[in-house]
């Protein structure tokens, strides 16, 4: 998509959960702010944060969930981050909020391999798409392709981000 800036600031400012964000024309940002607050508070509640919790924000766009940024492809970065930054006593929760295409097998494999990840919170705007395959990858029994204890879905919460349409976000908590 191309556009031409004619006048004024190159961004608009939106406030979400007490934080201000500069939204540029090509940035992704939830346009339903009230729905977004419900979505993000739901994700936060399912994370069950403790003092020693480390949050992995995987494919979450604008980084609303996280504080330290690692930029690149999740399937390439995640294994190295898990190896370099995780201590045995850490309580790790991974939040996935990818685009409609879901995440690749390398991401679900890396999540399965890290024993310290006890919870995965998966938010999807297209739960009947690639998310179904990602759920199977997270939950399938141990096999040659997926090592590590499988996750089990324990909660699923739909969030109506798009009133008066058939579209919704689905937030699923996986635990092991």
UniProtKB/TrEMBL annotation:
Gene3D superfamilies: 2.40.50.1070, Vaccinia Virus protein VP39 (3.40.50.150). It comes from the Eukaryota. GO terms for molecular function: RNA binding. Signal peptide: none annotated. PANTHER family: TRNA (URACIL-5-)-METHYLTRANSFERASE, TRNA (URACIL-5-)-METHYLTRANSFERASE HOMOLOG B. This is Uncharacterized protein.
